[in-house]
Design goal:
The structure is a homodimer. Chain A is an all-alpha fold and about 210 residues long. Chain A has helices at about 10-30, 35-40, 45-50, 55-75, 85-105, 105-115, 120-145, 155-175, 185-195. Chain A has nine helices and no strands. Chain A binds a DNA duplex (18 and 18 nucleotides) through helix 1 and helix 3.
DNA sequence: GTCTATATAATGATAGAC
DNA sequence: GTCTATCATTATATAGAC
């Protein structure tokens, strides 16, 4: 992907740049931060930064790759292994992932604008998104086969997955607007209200509100 | 809000700036467009632009105000009149609003980053959002009182409204990623899959999937 | 690997003539 | 109202010394 360092000291310089950029991007927004700011925060010269990265976009892409890697590690995914979890386990995992969203808050805020400006990042992002949607769709169909969720047709499953994905991807950044730091519970509550009615009375751990009285 | 023009010719210059900015922002993203680009596209000098707007942020705020005004006009809201529509009417109205999202596509993409950079815009945005959420919550409670939706407690209604709002606010920008221009029907399908199970069998126009067999 | 120095370009914004 | 002219500032990126 990028230049491979030959020594541990060098590797540390590259990581310092990434950490400095992450902190500044989160604080001021990626658009307001320049390579000079990043170099200063990293404690290196502006010129040295260009030894490690060709430009700001490459730093952003690298940070996105880090996020994807940490996310895959959390879910034990990315290696083709199908995810097999209960609905409540999925929600719990998503709640854990909220901390990740916080560490990469600038991506939650700026991702759409960044994608529009950098075709390379867009290619990475859409590929990851397609993979995740496919994984989650497979999981939803497994749930359907086991009677965990109701007998929805494939089109409805696709819409449901899409809706849940959209909420999972955006709740954090919009929650930040409410002053109080977005809480992981806020996100899971929103996902739960969407998913809950589709769970069968005995399949889901949380009781379905759809049961007739 | 801004300078008030004294002649129609002048007003037309100001509007040309706004239209030029809107076109460029939509095409390249607001971050990549400078006041010089906007002035050139508007057919005026860079200096003249500063006679009408103090900076780029003010142009963005004005465009956002335009969007809010057009949106309020579409819904007949903003003047305190409570919205009273059926679920299918709401979805139809949202589908009409998709054209608006397209005309102001840059806001759909960049809004979170812009809010982070401009406290004035953030104040406007959060005020509008709070008002819209309140209006929609009132409507949902009206539906509940009429038996259009099930007898949910207030907390669940709040979560449901929040989830629907999040999807309505974000589906367009993410749909753009799929190459095929985002279709209004895509958005309503997502909203429908969330709302449908909460509709009572006879209250909602679309049959609920939650009915027990 | 890292620095200093610098080239090149663009930016936001203002002053003053018309 | 609109223009031209211009400013100080800042950004990206490179060259070459160490």
């Amino acid at each position: 992907m990028s230049r491979i360092p030959t020594t541990d000291g060098a590797r540390r310089t590259r990581d310092r740049v990434l950490n400095a950029a992450l902190g500044l991007f989160n604080q001021h927004g990626s658009a307001a931060v320049t390579t000079n700011h990043v170099a200063a925060r990293a404690g290196i010269s502006p010129g040295n930064l260009y030894y490690w990265f060709s430009d700001k976009d490459e730093i952003v892409r690298e940070l996105y790759a880090q996020l994807v890697a940490e996310y895959d590690e959390l879910w034990g995914t990315g290696d083709g292994t199908p995810v097999d979890l209960t609905p409540d386990e999925v929600l719990a995992r998503l709640a854990e992932g909220a901390a990740l969203s916080g560490r990469y808050a600038f991506l939650a805020r700026d991702i759409l604008g960044l994608l529009h400006a950098d075709p390379l990042l867009e290619a990475e992002y859409t590929a990851v998104r397609a993979r995740r949607i496919a994984e989650f769709t497979d999981l939803a169909r497994t749930w359907r086969a086991r009677g965990v969720i109701r007998a929805l047709d494939d089109a409805t499953v696709a819409d449901l997955v899409q809706a849940l994905w959209l909420i999972a991807e955006t709740w954090f950044a919009f929650g930040e607007l409410d002053g109080n730091r977005a809480d992981a519970e806020d996100g899971t509550r929103l996902l739960r209200v969407v998913l809950r009615p589709y769970l069968t009375p005995d399949g889901g751990i949380t009781r379905s509100t759809c049961e007739q009285p």
